[in-house]
Amino acid sequence: MIGKIAGRLDWKGLDQVLIDCRGVGYLVHVSDRTLASLPPEGEFCALYTELLVREDLLQLFGFPTMLEKEWHKLLMTVQGVGAKASMAILGTLGAEGVARAISLGDARAVQAAPGVGPKLAQRIILELKTKAPSLMAAGARLSAAPQMDETVIESAPAAASKPAKRAPKVDDAALRRAAASADALSALVNLGYSQGDAAQAVATIAGEDPEVETAGLIRSALKLLQPR
């Protein structure tokens, strides 16, 4: 199984890239969002990958974080969601957006992805609302970008002619938000709330105030969860 590829970005297509890893070129399918985040051709990049194996086809799909890769795998457990639909959803919403949509039951947000109809969007919400919270709780731990191996950079032909660049790092603010949401979710579950209810409350508060810290997130979520 090929789990990560790091090397020189030789070519960018509409939905795929060619990465040269020590003389071997790997064709990797990526979402629009991932494609836009990659460096220019000729520079170095790293992606986590998932290999799709069929009788007549082998395809590699690339992701900027392990979190997005895990969301891809989770989305594909839903009947009717193939690799193309999963990549379209992640390309439209990103990992955080998918988590928020499922937590809030927002099928319309999922439906915004190309090729995803209302029935499929609703099925995704219904089937993943109990599975998503555990992945959301692991969000901060899985949000780091893959690291570039120094030996890959040093042995590449273009390394001598131009300074090598590492793979782009995940935005620090996004990491803090993911960590705060994960900590708040864990605290609410420990207080006895179900993962589904806790995740929905956390997503609601985080959507209203993206800069809220863990303590404030817990307090506001508790107010939402109190019986009326």
Q: Poorly predicted ranges (pLDDT <50, ≥5 residues)?
A: 154-161
For this structure, what is the CATH homologous superfamily of one domain? Answer: 5' to 3' exonuclease, C-terminal subdomain
Main sheet, how many strands, which sense, barrel? 5 strands, mixed, barrel
Principal-axis shape equals: globular
CATH architecture of one domain: Orthogonal Bundle
> What is the helix tally?
11
* Radius of gyration, whole Å: 19 Å
Strand content: 15-25%
Please list the strands of the largest sheet in the order they lie side by side.
Answer: 1-2-3-5-4
Pfam families: HHH_5 (PF14520), RuvA_C (PF07499), RuvA_N (PF01330)
Protein name: Holliday junction branch migration complex subunit RuvA
Family: Belongs to the RuvA family.
GO molecular function, one term: hydrolase activity
